[in-house]
Amino acid sequence: MTQITFTPADYTEIRRRSVDLHSKIFKKLTKDDDKTCAKHLGVWRNKAVALESDEEVDLFADYAIYGYRPRGFNMAEKYLRLFSRDADEFELALLRHMRHAHYAIYQADETDGNEFLQATDVFSKQTYRLLDRQMAQTAYTGLMLAGYLIDFDDFTIQTGGTVKVTREILQADEVVHVIDHIEDEQLASFLSDAANGAKLARAVVSAAFRLGQTGNFQHQAV
Q1: What architecture is domain 103-196?
Q2: Could you tell me which InterPro entries the record lists for this protein (predicted)?
Q3: How confident is the model at residue 54 (pLDDT cuts 50, 70, 90)?
């Protein structure tokens, strides 16, 4: 097995391959999986998944791949376990990182205006070196986002299903319900548990759907 170490120079290829893998993984979901995810996010209506825009489709797919954990692991790991024969070495290496994607609410601290921005996790206070060419050019200090992140050796990327955290979302019943049940001493480590990350992801994304705020932040393909 070839050992692949990802570097910032691989960014465009990582993004391209991630889009391909997301599509492949999403197609492996069953009708029951789709129904369950839609019910989680409040978009199951008239016996069908009710999505009204490309942004809603992207958020739904991202939650289904990373936040939906029916057997204790996400769909990226399920794909890795069951369909690894369909992936090449680059995809296999990428899937091994994708299966460890973690949910975070984070705030932009500074950007180099080109490729990288520094952001701080609101819960753990961990600092992320985010590689995102679009956001590095448009982000501003204090911008708060929520979504799944994938860590590499010396940089981190977003999975693509990112929500801009507004006052309305922070005050949404779904989100308040999760946050209010976190003990003070557990706050820093709360999202280190993938199951807790899934709970918060479900709350934030369902609030974004209900409030019509799925289009506040978009990640453009490169």
Answers
A1: Beta Barrel (2.40)
A2: DUF7986 (IPR058292)
A3: very high
